[in-house]
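agent: user wants the structure for LysR substrate-binding domain-containing protein from bioreactor metagenome. delegating to structure tool.
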Amino acid sequence: MPLLQQSTRPYGWRQWFDAMGMDAPRALDGPRYELFSMIAVAATMGLGVALMPPMLIEAEMERGDLVIACPRALQGERAYYLVTPAQPAATVLTAFSAWLGRMAGMGAYPDGRQAMEE
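agent: tool returned. relaying tokens verbatim.
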């Protein structure tokens, strides 16, 4: 089955196979797509296997169009930060920040499974 590649993360599959302790000389082969949404459509159409953040394919998983093929997730190298103006935070922003922290602590999956650490 082809490995669907994201052009902005060209070494994603290599990193995944390395983290799994597997040798995959053709990990960089496979069709390349610019956006996660394009990869999700390609995977849904049966064109290959994708590395996807589960939060981006919740609807497809709920419909049964896509399934998580491997329960082990790869911890990403990138990070996202919540940034706000330097002025005191509004109550709604404080509440959102607390909610976001709780959600991030749940891991990559809605059921609470944690992403694998490298």
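agent: one observation worth passing along. The first strand starts at residue 5 and ends at 6.
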